[in-house]
Amino acid sequence: MKKITNLFLAAVFFIAGAGFIFSSCTKEGPQGPAGTNGTNASTTCKECHNFSDTITAKIFQYDASKHASGSTLMEAANTSCAPCHSSQGFTEVLTTGSFSTKAPITDAAPINCRTCHQIHKTYTSSDWALATTAQFRMRYDSTVNVNFTPDGGSANLCGRCHQARAANPALTKPSSTTDSISITSVRWGPHHGPQANMLAAKGAYNDASFGTSPHKDHIGCIGCHGSNAQGNLVGGHTLIMSSATTGDNVAVCKPCHSSATSFDIAGDQTTIMGMYQRLKVKLATVNMLDTNTMLIKPKKYSQADLAVFWNFMLVTADRSNGVHNFQYTFDMLQAGINHFGGKLN
Predict the structure, then answer these.
(1) Alpha-carbon span 162 to 141, nearest angstrom
(2) Could you give the CA distance from residue 198 to residue 205 in angstroms, rounded to a whole number?
(3) Which residues contact 218 (CB under 8 A, 6 or more apart)?
(4) Predicted local distance difference test score (pLDDT) of residue 344
């Protein structure tokens, strides 16, 4: 009995001691400096997170987009590619104004909500605002600035990436049929997304006489690509214009082209596709174009031939078959066909 009593007393003393130590360790310290008034989440966060389906719908659409796939994310390891192939790279160059990141991007994230919008900057509905709508410099020539004004300048955000890179080697005499340049890379050309060039009518060689269509003065990228969502197939945050299920999303055209039933308005796409095919055959015939890869065959060419090839690849990579700028596209294809007209049957 005495042994049990002693054990009981020991336990009591242990608990009391532990309580003393704990209370000493958790004693309230000195008051810290006054903080700033916080945002009342109940009155601001719910401006977006309001139990509606708005965010859910946008995420559903965006998940079907090419941007969300991250299929070219590995390019973020290259500092000149990272600004357009990663979210972090794009955000960095918005601040620095450079065409390259300072270092390769590790743990790169694909283009996402935070890339294009001011997500969680104010925790209000103003966070839906675009990351930028300011004019931008063109990569093919950094002295050229473009400012798309329709739709609040939304196309200025898209155009920062959807533009041609600089030619390497560049053409210094693009009209010369005697001055030649050796091409060593099959990748010589304007790269894969020159839509801003086409819309703005900037970046084709020998284009002083080329005309332009008025789309850039009336509507921006989002006005067409981001309108009239149909599930996750076209429109909205899919940014997709046509699908096998819905066909062309012509509802975005009808405010201006009321009778449109497809994007081939007045047969303009048919015209461009026919001209494109003619020039493609000509380039293949003179052994410039590998029609299996749709890339150039490395060797020595006259600068005039290379100028035609560059312009042809602008049309190839634009992928709109003239919708972005019918007249500019028509004129550059016609110039290319005329250039080779005397060489081919």
Answers:
(1) 14
(2) 12
(3) 150, 256
(4) 46
Who's near 126: CB < 8 A, 6+ residues apart? 118
Over residues 310-328, mean pLDDT: 98
Phi-psi region of 236 (alpha: psi -120 to 50; beta: other; left: phi over 0): left
Instruction: Mention every residue, 6+ apart, whose C-beta is less than 8 A from residue 111.
Output: 67, 68, 86, 87, 90
Pick from 322, 314, 220: nearest CA to 263? 322
Max CA-CA distance within the chain?
119
Query: E-strand spans in the chain?
Result: 136-137, 145-146, 180-182, 242-243, 247-248, 289-290, 295-296, 300-302
Task: Tell whether the model's pLDDT for residue 345 goes beyond 50.
Answer: no
Query: How far is Cα 67 from Cα 239, in angstroms, rounded to an integer?
Result: 9
Which residues lie below 8 Å from residue 290, measured CB to CB, with a gap of 6+?
A: 186, 296, 297
Q: Which of 253, 255, 256, 258 is nearest to 320 (CA)?
A: 253
d(CA 66, CA 240): 9
Candidates 159, 143, 76, 145; CA nearest to 111 is 76
Alpha-carbon separation of residue 303 from 170, 171, 299, 300, 332 (angstroms)? 9, 6, 12, 9, 16
What are 137-151's pLDDT values in tens digits? 999 999 999 999 999
CA distances to 84, 158, 195, 241 from 323, rounded to whole Å, are: 24, 17, 10, 11
